[in-house]
Amino acid sequence: MTVALFLRIQSLQPAERLNVLCSANWNLPKNTRALNRLLQSPKEGDFWQADHIKAVSEGGGSCGMENFRTLCVPCHQNETQKLKHRLRLKDDSSTSNDIKSDTKRSMDLRMFFAKDTKSKEVAKKRPRTIIDITDD
């Protein structure tokens, strides 16, 4: 469908192109300059793009041609947004895991200031808290 749409758009005048794209529910560029370029001189790359089935950031960089597919530009943008969301979630979970593991390895600072063994035992039993002292 994407190739057929491109061929049809290419054969039309700019004013007609906009009507056909709108009736095809095509996601038009939000940028005025990009929209004008699409209407004045459409290119195949405006209608389809190559996509990695398994994203490079998820280990798909060294795969062969079987890892490629063609998607219409709006679908490719949608897949890219999904990937960004997955990566953000993965990054957030790894950050929280790093904080948890740092908490397990940290010692209660009060232990070093305790004068006797009994105080050191109490300091070990108190819950640990993390205080962020960085300026954001």
How is this structure best described in words?
By secondary structure, this protein is mainly alpha-helical. It has one domain. The protein contains 5 helices and 2 strands. Strands 1-2 form a two-stranded antiparallel ribbon. The protein starts with a helix and ends in an 11-residue tail after the last helix. The model has no long low-confidence stretch (mean pLDDT 79).
Write the topology of this structure.
Layout: H1 2-11, H2 14-23, H3 32-40, E1 48-52, E2 68-72, H4 73-105, H5 117-125
Antiparallel strand pairs: 1-2
String of helices and strands: HHHEEHH
Query: How does the overall form come out from the CA principal axes?
Result: elongated
Strand content: 5-15%
Structural class determined from secondary elements: mainly alpha
Give the number of helices.
Answer: 5
Q: What is the number of beta strands?
A: 2
Mean pLDDT: 79
Largest sheet: 2 strands, antiparallel
